[in-house]
Amino acid sequence: MIHGVKVTNSSKEPDWTELRSRFPVFQKKSYLNSCSYGALAKEVDASVCRYLEDRNEKGADWDFWVGRNEAVRGLVAQLIGAGPEEVAITASVSAGINSLASALSFDGPRNKVIITDFEFPTNAQIWYAQEMRGARVVRLAEEGGQIPLEKFEQAIDEDTLIVATAQVAFGHGAKQDIPAIAEIARRKGALMMVDGYQAFGSMSFDVRQAGVDFAVGGMLKYLLGTAGIAFLYIRQELIEAFTPTATGWFAQEDIMAMDITGYSPSSTARRFEAGTPPVPNCYMAEAGMTILQEIGLENIETRIGQLTASIKDLSAEAGYSVASPPEPSRHGAMIALRCRDEDRLIASLAEDNIVVSCRNGNLRIAPHFYNNHADIERLFRALHKRKELLV
Ligand SMILES: Cc1ncc(COP(=O)(O)O)c(C=O)c1O
């Protein structure tokens, strides 16, 4: 039992129809927008009510609330194969990266930060902001939907402090070979951070197997939670080597010491946290991640693989131009189609109760385990009626 929920045998095929029935949005919409925001499960909805009831009944229940934050920390640790002491719970991915960046020094011989064309803006902007502190940002260019490993091999050198890159690109779903990039970084003495926001919850990921030093992700997409809660993983051996200057009272070794005479960062990853935990969001994140545990990430990955395969097949049949790489190992849970007028296309599909999103001229089709082939067929029937808006 994990938090009162029975964990099913992940080798057994889950009951996808029953699981889908827990997401009321499907009564009204074909929701294929998990790359932007995951669908709301009844359990997650109920967790908000529970939070409100707790407030009405007890007023403030800090011990229980801190417990919810710790439960989320434990669930994140299990999700990525880390220890709970290696996980900081943050308000956003941006907060986690900022805290990490504040702990790095760019004054020494290593001041180069490597990012790529695949980054979500926050994972570029924060590193460019460090240029005011001496960092040099090098951005590797995309070539035909990928960043060739040779580019990392050439760019990472004795000046490189950190490589900070996305596992799955938010614009078209291309997936990078993070273990291979991490191996290059390690061999050249650089640190490695992965932004797994577009991957976590949609596929298995183990920080130790991947060989990364840091990882960031958040709860509002494939983790089924909400906005306003995220996490930063720091490899155990590195925690005490990095002292963030972006901090707060929940980052101190003894939170309740209420010390105003100095700064005593926690000896765990909690040193990368800041203020009061996002209490209502903890309830929702815990409920969302518990559903994923119940199903098993391998089952989820297989299911998403079947759905993305059918998106690629139907696109090929119709002759639509796919922006995502075709090989299953080289894309995440999103398949993107090139379009001519993305805003018109999204608005027009919404009239047919189909929810998708777009970025950089691409229509992003992002299924999760709760989607089915009927959702995809419905989307393609709607696309065929609007062919002129696609490339
Ligand atoms: C890959 C990736 N990183 C980061 C973010 C944003 O993170 P936050 O808003 O929590 O800072 C997103 C959001 O869409 C994303 O897709």
Characterise this structure.
This protein has 391 residues and is of the alpha/beta class. 36% of the residues lie in helices and 13% in strands. The protein has twelve helices and twelve strands. It has helices spanning 16-20, 42-58, 62-80, 93-103, 122-129, 149-155, 178-187, 207-210, 279-295, 297-318, 342-351, 373-384, and strands at 30-31, 87-90, 112-116, 136-140, 160-166, 191-195, 214-218, 230-234, 335-338, 354-355, 357-359, 362-365. The longest helix has 22 residues, at 297-318. The radius of gyration is 21 Å and the shape is globular. Bound molecules: pyridoxal-5'-phosphate. Pyridoxal-5'-phosphate is lined by residues 92-94, 120, 122-123, 166, 170, 195, 197-198, 218, 230.
Keywords for this entry:
391 residues, alpha/beta, seven-stranded mixed beta sheet, three-stranded antiparallel beta sheet, 12 strands, 13% strand, disordered N terminus, binds pyridoxal-5'-phosphate
Helical residues, percent: 25-40%
Q: Please report the distance between the alpha carbons of the first and last residues.
A: 49 Å
Q: Major β-sheet, in short?
A: 7 strands, mixed
Q: Encode the helix/strand succession as letters.
A: HEHHEHEHEHEHEHEEHHEHEEEH
Count of extended strands: 12
Strand order of the largest sheet: 2-8-7-6-5-3-4
Low-confidence stretches: 1-10
Radius of gyration: 21 Å
Query: What overall form do the CA principal axes indicate?
Result: globular
Number of helices: 12
Q: What fraction of the residues are assigned to beta strands by DSSP?
A: 5-15%
| Bound chemical compounds | pyridoxal-5'-phosphate
What's the mean pLDDT score?
Answer: 96
Structural class: alpha/beta
